[in-house]
Amino acid sequence: MEIKVLGVGCSKCRTLLATVEKVVAEDGIDATVTKVDDMIQILEYKILSTPALVVDEQIVSEGKSLTKAEVRHLLTRKRNVG
Known about the structure:
Radius of gyration: 12 Å
Strand order of the largest sheet: 2-1-3-4
Number of helices: 3
Low-confidence stretches: none
Structural class: alpha+beta
Strand content: 15-25%
Number of strands: 4
């Protein structure tokens, strides 16, 4: 699984990245987590606000920092579907 957190460095972006990394580690998810902070790359996703969470090149959330439970739900759903 490839997970990307899109954002230029605001506190919500940093919080989302930390939350995603914690969930991946706690749940033993086989994933690569990357932070995308290059504005040109972010614009390619055509999102309206950051932070955004992209899982396997699909935008699953944008514009808010998520709780661990929300991240876990999104990643579990993606693993079961994908």
